[in-house]
Structures are given as C-alpha cells and as structure tokens.
C-alpha cells in the first residue's frame, strides 16, 4: 500500500520533470524502490548473524541498503527489536511534552541536565534502531552499527548520571565520599562500558564464550552502580510519602534489573528453539524493559526537577552545570573515536579472514 502510493508519487514527479527546469534534481529520484528479499533460515546466513535458538526470519546479506531501510515494514526476526525502540522514542517525546506542559520549565542552566537526559535517551534508541535495521547488510556493517550502538549506551548512562546527580541526590549523599568527582567518574565508566563492549565484540567470535559477556557486563555494572547510587541512597533514607518521585525511581530500578536478566540470558528462546523467531525473544523483552526504565526515569526526573529547580543552581553552581554540558559532547567524541579505532582493527581482521580462506 505504502509502496503503491510512493510509486504513484514518483511517477507523478517524473512526469512533471519535463515541465520543470530542475530536471537534474528529478533525475535523482529513483524510478522504483527495491523490495527486500524474503527472509531465510539461519543456515543461509553467515554464522556472525545467527542468534542462538533463533532458527528463521533472517534477512539475506548483501542486498541494496534501501532494502534494509524498507525492511522496517517487513516481518523478520529483528522487526520487534526495531519497533520497540521506535515506539519508545515516540512515547518518550510525548511524555516529555506532556510533562513540560504540566510542570512548566524555564530555559536556564537548571534545565540543562534534563535536556541532556532526553538527548542521551533518544540517542541510544536511535542508534539501536539503526543497528538492528542495518546490521544484516554485511559483516562490516554488523560490526560498525553495533559499535555505534555501544556509543549510544555510554551516552545514556552518562545522561542518567547527570539527572540523578543534579535532581535526585540528597545533601547527605553529596557529603559522602561516593559523590567525590562523581561526574568525571561517571563519564569515565560510561566510556569504559563503550570500550569494553567494543573490545568484547572485536575479540570474541561466535559461538561467543562467557568472557564476552563478562567484558560487557563488568564495566556496564560498575557504571550503573555509580550512576544509581544517589537514587538508592534516597530510596533508603527519605520517606516515600514526601517525595512523589520515589515510586518512579523504584520502578526504574526494577525495570533495569529485569532488562539486565533478559540481556544476559537467551530466555525464553532457549526453552523453545525456533518458536520465538519473530515474537518473544529475550532481546526484545530486554528492549521493552529498558524502554520502561527510561520512561520511569523521565517521570521521576521531571518530578525531582519540579521540586528542586529553584535550588539546583544554588547548590551546584552554574560552573558545574556548564561543565556537565561540555563533558557530554566530550564523552561522545571519546566514544566515537574508540568505536572507530576498534572498527579499523576489525576491518583488518575481516580482511585477513577473507584472504586466509
Ligand atoms: Zn538491541
């Protein structure tokens, strides 16, 4: 249906090009779009693309790039991984505007961490959608887009730590030793998560050994424990009846822990090989819980911001808020460089593997 409409639009555009002096522009419009090829069994794709216990629904490699973009409307074993984060981005933006409408905001330094949290959340969702949509093109694409996905994860971790630090932390936590150099340490652990995940993907080939998960999980767990520490402290020291955001913070932690379980283990597909190829894979459930975690965080941070916005600048100072603003793109640059350097080594390895065959 969408293809028909697009085709009609293209035909119409090609007809009017004879009437228009801008012929060279209309020449750029393709006369037809390629259709993605039907999905295939796991045995028909290289081992790199095969997921444990997922036996069918794979998109063939080496199709036109547009086929992978258009595969957003195709039924394959990555469809739900793509759509969970597309829908989550839309809901996140809707909840953002709703909260802004209800609670109001002033575009000043105190609002900055909330904007960075939104940017970091949308970044990880966008990079995840890109990775799941385009990775099937080739081994090169698979590595490149998943390295970029890890950049998104690092940014999101740091975005969370900014929100928790500026809006959620209690005076007693800020006086404790854990708060010392909190933001530089959070940025470092964010980068370490990205570097650990990139290294694990570069170093270990399928079937992946346990060490790969360890390389991914240790830095991300360290980052999470630090980033969540102001929230944990408040949940245990402040009455839940006085702080409306407490419930949302508890829900964000519960969602994150559940997402970590489904990220770490291929459940439920390990119990039903071939039955979760399209719906019900552990990775899809991981996406759902991580998206829920982000939603609950947004609600909690808006509540905390509404209550404390007048004292944020007074407590932390404008300098620290602006430092947070600068450190965010700096972390992004470091992570991108790490991903690109790993990609360079990966390219060499792929080339060596090809020439040794
Ligand atoms: Zn994913």
Automatic annotation (TrEMBL):
Keyword Membrane tagged: yes
One Pfam family recorded for the sequence: HlyIII
Amino acids binding Zn(2+): 132, 283, 287
Localization of this protein: Membrane
The entry's keywords: Membrane, Metal-binding, Transmembrane, Transmembrane helix, Zinc
One CC-aspect GO term: plasma membrane
Keyword Chloroplast: no
GO molecular function, one term: nuclear steroid receptor activity
Membrane topology: Multi-pass membrane protein
Primary site of residence: membrane
Residues that span the membrane, as ranges: 80-98, 110-134, 141-158, 178-202, 253-272, 284-301, 321-341
Tree of life domain: Eukaryota
The family this protein is said to belong to: Belongs to the ADIPOR family.
Descriptive protein name: Progestin and adipoQ receptor family member VIII
Native source organism of the sequence: Mastacembelus armatus (zig-zag eel)
């Amino acid at each position: 249906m969408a293809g028909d409409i697009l085709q009609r639009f293209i035909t119409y555009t090609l007809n009017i090009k004879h009437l228009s002096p801008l012929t060279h522009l209309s020449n750029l419009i393709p006369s037809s779009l390629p259709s993605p090829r039907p999905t295939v069994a796991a045995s028909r794709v290289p081992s790199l693309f095969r997921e444990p216990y997922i036996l069918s629904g794979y998109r063939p490699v080496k199709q036109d790039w547009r086929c992978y973009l258009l595969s957003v409307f195709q039924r394959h074993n990555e469809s739900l991984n793509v759509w969970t984060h597309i829908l989550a981005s839309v809901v996140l933006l809707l909840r953002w505007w709703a909260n802004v409408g209800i609670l109001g905001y002033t575009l000043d330094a105190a609002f900055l961490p909330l904007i960075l949290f939104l940017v970091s959340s949308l970044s990880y969702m966008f990079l995840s959608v890109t990775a799941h949509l385009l990775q099937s093109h080739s081994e090169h694409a698979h590595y490149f887009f998943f390295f970029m996905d890890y950049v998104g994860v690092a940014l999101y971790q740091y975005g969370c730590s900014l929100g928790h630090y500026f809006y959620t932390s209690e005076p007693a936590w800020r006086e404790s030793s854990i708060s010392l150099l909190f933001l530089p340490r959070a940025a470092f652990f964010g980068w370490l998560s990205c570097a650990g995940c990139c290294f694990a993907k570069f170093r270990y080939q399928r079937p992946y050994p346990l060490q790969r998960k360890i390389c991914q999980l240790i830095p991300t767990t360290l980052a999470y424990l630090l980033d969540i520490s102001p929230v944990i402290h408040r949940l245990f020291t402040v009455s839940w009846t006085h702080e409306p955001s407490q419930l949302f913070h508890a829900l964000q932690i519960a969602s994150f822990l559940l997402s970590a379980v489904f990220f770490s283990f291929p459940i439920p597909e390990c119990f039903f090989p071939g039955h979760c190829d399209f719906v019900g894979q552990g990775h899809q459930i991981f996406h759902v819980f991580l998206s829920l975690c982000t939603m609950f965080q947004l609600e909690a941070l808006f509540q905390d911001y509404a209550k404390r916005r007048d004292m944020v600048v007074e407590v932390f100072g404008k300098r620290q808020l602006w430092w947070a603003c600068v450190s965010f793109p700096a972390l992004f640059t470091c992570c991108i460089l790490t991903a690109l350097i790993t990609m360079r080594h990966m390219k060499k390895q792929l080339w060596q593997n090809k020439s040794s065959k």
